[in-house]
Amino acid sequence: MRLAIPGPTSKGPTEKFTGDVYLNALQSGEDPSRLNSAMVRFSPAARTHWHSHPLGQTLHCTDGMGLVATRDGNVILMRAGDAVYTPPGEEHWHGATQESLMCHLALVEHDNGHTATWLEPVSEHDYQAAHTATHA
After folding, report:
1. Any idea what the CATH number is for the domain that residue 79 is in?
2. Is the entire prediction scored with pTM above 0.90?
3. Residue 96's closest CA among 76, 117, 66?
4. Which terminal Cβ of the chain has fewer Cβ within 10 Å, N or C?
5. What is the DSSP string of 33-91?
């Protein structure tokens, strides 16, 4: 057993995020474990780009309200205490609502060091459509 000290806070890179996003690595999978975890904080309306994970992802919202959306238009409003699972290969994005900060724990397993395939930014139209769908 050992205390896992969170890594320093870093700003999410613009190649993966829109808006102000801050990350703290919590755990990097060390053989035989493949678990990677991070605390991710989103300012209002900040979000990831479209992406997928080779072995899926679990998000556990710890504070605020956020959105998780898939390419087929499925949208979940996530509140503190909620967990959302995206299966392997499913293209999705997640981030804060327009009016709230959001923090989540991101849990992924790496596949030979690969945790995600990053794609294009979420358009303002797609973000607004997801926001409207959950706030109607």
Report:
1. 2.60.120.10
2. yes
3. 66
4. N
5. --EEEEEEEE-TT-EEPSEE-TT-EEEEEEEEEEEEEETTS-EEEEETT-EEEE-TT--
* Three-class secondary structure of residue 132 per DSSP: helix
3-state class (DSSP) for residue 127: helix
Amino acid at 19: G
pLDDT along the chain (136 residues), means of 10: 86 98 88 87 98 97 98 96 98 97 95 92 96 82
Residue 5: inside a domain: no
Residue 136 lies in a domain: no
Structural domain boundaries, residue 40? 10-131
Q: Are 67 and 76 in contact (CB under 8 A)?
A: yes
